Amino acid sequence: MSHHEIPTGEKEARFAAQSVIVARILENGMRAYSEEITDLDAAFSTDDKVIRCIDEGTPGGVHLAGSGILMDAAQLTASLRAMGATGITSHSHCGAAGLYAKAQGLDPSLRYVGLV
Ligand SMILES: [Zn+2]
What we know:
Layout: H1 8-28, H2 30-36, H3 40-43, E1 50-53, E2 62-64, H4 73-83, E3 87-88, H5 95-103
Parallel strand pairs: 1-2, 1-3
Helix pairs in contact: 1-2
């Protein structure tokens, strides 16, 4: 068992706990469920305001495909300013960057497009 693996008994307990939540959401809707959560804002706030690609597998921060490379530039810029982003990371062999390169007529075999 790796250190990330959840013991079987705990898996069953977690499944049972989330099943109750899912049943309540299915019965009353997500809006009603979200109104019961007193600290809901905490789920959508973070002290780590570095933009990361969803592929990077790094904890924390804000994850966007290709660190936002596929978004409209003006919309991305406005969003980053509004949230107070402190940085953007990228990684080699990024699938979203490959899509961007292909859409822009760039050489997709490079598989790495730097953000500017
Ligand atoms: Zn990526």
